[in-house]
Amino acid sequence: MADIIKLLPDHVANQIAAGEVVQRPASVVKELLENAIDAKSTSIKLIVKDGGKVLIQVVDDGIGMSVTDARLSFERHATSKIQKAEDLFKLDTKGFRGEALASIAAIAHVDMQSRQENEEVGTHLKIEGSKVLSQEVAAVPKGTSIAVKNLFYNIPARRNFLKSNQVEFRHITDEFHRVALAHPDISFHFYNNGNELFNLPKTNHRQRIVNIFGVKTNQKLVPVTEETQVLKISGFILKPEFAKKSRGEQFFFVNNRFIKSPYLNHAILAAYEGLIRPSTYPGYFLNLEVDPASIDINIHPTKTEVKFDDEHTLYAILRSTVKHSLGQFNVMPALDFEKDQNLDTPYAFKNKGAAIPRVAVDSSFNPFQESTQKKELAPRHSSFIKPNTQSWESLYVGLESEKGNSNDFSSLQFESDAITGSLFESKTEEETATPTFQLKRKYIVTTIKSGMLVVDQSKAHQRVLYERYLKNITIKKAVSQQLLFPLELSFSKKDIVLLREMAESMTTLGFVFGKIGEEQVEITGVPHLVKDSEVQNILDELIADCQQGTATDGFSQNDLLAKTMAKTLSVKTGEYLDRASQQALVNDLFACKDPLVSPFNKPVYVTISENEIDNKFN
């Protein structure tokens, strides 16, 4: 029998490796930025076009590569980070396996320029699909520039699985944030389709956070510092009142490397227990420094998941450190049983004596004096004087002329001459309507022919509002109420990009935008019946839903916007509804096209038949 096991060609092996390393354009950005950091760069530029599908270019001013190194860098398992197996247990660099450039070159067109500082000329290398097209000597600046063009050009199936340019760009922005936050000592520039999105100078950790997420973030930060034999913690957490419904601003760094750790994230949530509302998440920017030998960062191809030797100790230290910071900066409420602040004397009245109250008495006042004195007191005590009734006859002036016709009823007019044969008065509309009542301020219970109907008031109102808003977006006709004083709301640059994309759809709902700056949004009009205080919550909900990548086209954006508006403005569980509101909600629900489920595919109501009720008593 012939041998059936064969070695794969290099270009096929590279494409298989690319499936692990390069999942989307953001993966290429991560690998190239980390290589630039390992090259000891002080300034890095990231240039992106069309969500990274057309171009991803990273330019740095690092140490550069020689002609030989430039060529070897695109070979599999070619790396300068490790020399022997023992080096895997004390890694202090980003990339170390030597698969990134080889995998990227297998599925894209790569153009690299590099020059070392002590060399007069550098090298220019072009590769397409793992094939080296040319390598020439060129006059290039110090450092390295790698341009990745036409990603997945030779794998159409993988390219078709990519999302829209907006969604891919958001993933690239997330990777850029993670790298930039971990290295505030490096300046970063980010260009998207020719426009400069971020210009981050070299600074400290706090200022880097402010430069990325906006000026308003500075007042939200609470510093966290702790140093033990096992772990050193530094960074910032956000105050509890700024907890959001999305996990956007949550960053863990271990030895300046971004990681995802649900276990350590639970330690943060435990520290915030009782301080934030349910279904909200606190923000944090924490850097953990541990012994490189105590972690394994090679358990996942993207190196975002690590394995700690002693996770339980790290959990306890992190939880107690965050709690200590919340209490140290008076963020957590505290009880002092030794001192009652209500009994403290204000500082301004500390040395003042008590003023004795005085009573003023009018000694000349006599309640039994004549009316002349009463008239003098009338302006002050008019409410205690009986009105003068001597001219009561004037109230009936003009009635004498009608005395002669007092018995003539021909001039009388009645509001209605309709005669009914009923012995009882007709019932009002409210009395004839189907009776309803509210159960636990959560459900609306009413009767039907076959038994009983129980409606979830929150989900029912969501369905009603969802179809109403979706209709307004479709016909582009909505009622807007202008604000007397425009609202000035602050957002991060990343959130501003999302709002610009959704501005047209939001205008069809009734929002009127003024000036949209880099970190400020002016709103001059809001939809009808929307309160000013709810606008911030609506926009936060919309941004959180968009960051999940669910909106990929125009229809999805409109649908997402309608769902967000309905979820935010609907009646919540615990709100009291009067009888008229209950009946109106039930009527509006069954006037919808699909009253069975909410916009989020949850059941809206259940029916309980008369037989089911009878069986309970058998």
Q: What would you say this structure looks like, in words?
A:
Helices cover 32% and strands 21% of the residues. With 618 residues, the protein is of the alpha+beta class. It has three domains: 10-200, Histidine kinase-like ATPase, C-terminal domain (Heat Shock Protein 90), CATH 3.30.565.10; 205-328, Ribosomal Protein S5, domain 2 (2-Layer Sandwich), CATH 3.30.230; 443-606, MutL, C-terminal domain, regulatory subdomain (Ribosomal Protein S8, Chain: A, domain 1), CATH 3.30.1370. An eight-stranded mixed beta sheet has the order 5-4-3-6-2-1-7-8. A five-stranded mixed beta sheet has the order 9-10-13-11-12, sandwiched between helices. The chain has a four-stranded antiparallel beta sheet with strand order 16-17-18-22. Strand 3 (109-115) and strand 4 (122-128) form a beta hairpin. Helix 1 (10-21) crosses helix 4 (100-106), helix 2 runs parallel beside helix 6 and helix 6 runs antiparallel to helix 7 (205-213). It is globular. The model is unreliable at 380-384 (pLDDT under 50).
